[in-house]
Design a protein that fits this description.
five-stranded mixed sheet
Length: about 170
């Protein structure tokens, strides 16, 4: 388990003497030192949680590189991270990563689990790149026209959703 400097023992020897020089039998006291205290987190719970845009790889990398800090009563700690896999949300690009850490001291005492949640959101609206061309529609005998469906002429893109998955609608409806 590493160099656990907090383990060991001390032996004290006690003798009682009276004024006449009489001595008691020797009493031996053994004091055992054992570190059984786990490291504690100095980073507040939730302090590393982040909400970022689903297409911001730089910010995602920054969030993934963050780590909590821990202290121990007898020395240094070693952090071990378990990286979370992406859990998709209810639409493309949205979801979470949940990373966890343990802090371990030289005597193999382990902290409670520290959890970081990185939430990916889509807060950018799609952009229409190509609009439907202008068209003239002839009115019928009742002076009403049938509006054609222009949605197939529209091209759009989005930062988190593939173009083929975008829902294009028109108003008024064809």
């Amino acid at each position: 388990p590493g160099n656990c400097g907090a383990k060991g023992s001390y032996t004290n020897t006690w003798i009682a003497k009276d004024a006449a020089g009489n001595e008691s039998t020797i009493f031996t006291q053994v004091i055992t030192v054992n570190d059984q205290t786990a490291p504690t987190w100095t980073t507040l719970a939730g302090a590393l949680d982040m909400t970022i845009s689903c297409n911001d790889e730089e910010e995602l990398n920054r969030a993934q590189s963050r780590a909590p800090k821990a202290i121990d009563n007898c020395g240094s700690v070693t952090l071990s991270k378990t990286a979370g896999v992406f859990v998709p949300g209810n639409c493309a690009g949205k979801g979470t990563y949940t990373n966890t850490w343990l802090a371990t001291d030289a005597c193999s005492n382990q902290s409670q689990v520290y959890t970081q949640v990185i939430t990916l959101i889509d807060n950018t609206a799609p952009v229409i790149n190509v609009c439907a061309p202008e068209k003239t529609v002839q009115a019928g005998v009742s002076c009403k026209a049938t509006l054609p469906d222009f949605t197939t002429d529209i091209q759009a893109n989005d930062n988190c959703t593939a173009s083929a998955q975008l829902i294009i609608s028109q108003s008024p409806v064809a």
